[in-house]
Design a protein that fits this description.
InterPro entries: Pyridox_Oxase (IPR000659), Pyridox_Oxase_N (IPR011576), Pyridoxamine_oxidase_dimer_C (IPR019576), Split_barrel_FMN-bd (IPR012349)
Mean pLDDT: 91
Helix content: 25-40%
CATH architecture of the largest domain: Roll
Shape: elongated
Number of strands: 9
Number of domains: 2
Strand content: 25-35%
Low-confidence stretches: none
Structural class: alpha+beta
Distance between the termini: 25 Å
Cofactor: FMN
CATH superfamily of the largest domain: Electron Transport, Fmn-binding Protein, Chain A
GO molecular function: pyridoxamine phosphate oxidase activity
Family: Belongs to the pyridoxamine 5'-phosphate oxidase family.
Keywords: Flavoprotein, FMN, Oxidoreductase
């Protein structure tokens, strides 16, 4: 009989394999997932995000804390994710609590971002009114000249978040729908269980 830890690790490993398979087959945005959040009044919203890492601690992604999703994650730190790879006829859904990560984690991944993306994060805060045409490019060039060869510091609003799964469900989408659907669930006692579901 598999232990709770083994069941959870198995689920994460299967998710990682699907991402790698999608990447190997040339699927665009293989690391992208729909992130569903809700505000303090339970008004839902959903958008695509890039999942930076699938780790035992959870799934890592980033958000501007002043954006809609950032505010919702702070006010109501629970979310769902849905990966869908049409080419593989596979989808995976997850849900759980979302934990804002340390400054060190945010800094570490900020340094890996392309310089142009870093500059844009300063010039174009997510969700704010767009500047006049051409103004954003001018501001990016201005900031780049001011920094010279210095690294672009992390915007204080650009933060790492981690979804800690409590449910992971593999739901193949091929037709006819006779493929195996599997749900991994963290129960009230903290132990993980695995169950086959009707497609």
């Amino acid at each position: 009989m598999k232990s709770s830890e083994a069941i959870y690790r198995e689920a994460l490993a299967q998710l990682q394999r699907l991402i790698e398979q999608a990447t190997a087959q040339g699927v665009e945005e293989a690391h992208a997932a729909a992130l569903a959040t809700a505000d303090r009044y339970a008004h839902p919203s959903v958008r695509m995000v890039y999942i930076v890492a699938v780790e035992e601690a959870g799934l890592l992604f980033f958000a501007n804390t002043e954006s809609g999703k950032g505010q919702q994650l702070i006010d109501n730190p629970r979310a769902s994710l849905c990966f869908f790879w049409r080419e593989l006829q596979e989808q995976v859904t997850l849900e759980g609590d979302v934990i804002r990560q340390s400054v060190e984690t945010s800094d570490n991944y900020w340094r890996k971002r392309p310089r142009e993306t870093q500059l844009a994060a300063w010039v174009l805060p997510q969700g704010t009114p767009a500047p006049e045409k051409g103004e954003s490019r001018r501001q990016v060039r201005q900031l780049e000249q001011a920094l010279g060869f210095e690294p672009v510091p992390r915007s204080p609003n650009w933060c790492a978040f981690r979804l800690q799964p409590e449910r992971i469900e593999f739901w193949p989408s091929g037709w006819p729908r006779m493929r195996e659907r599997v749900r991994y669930l963290k129960q009230a006692d903290g132990l993980w269980s695995e169950a086959l579901l009707s497609p």
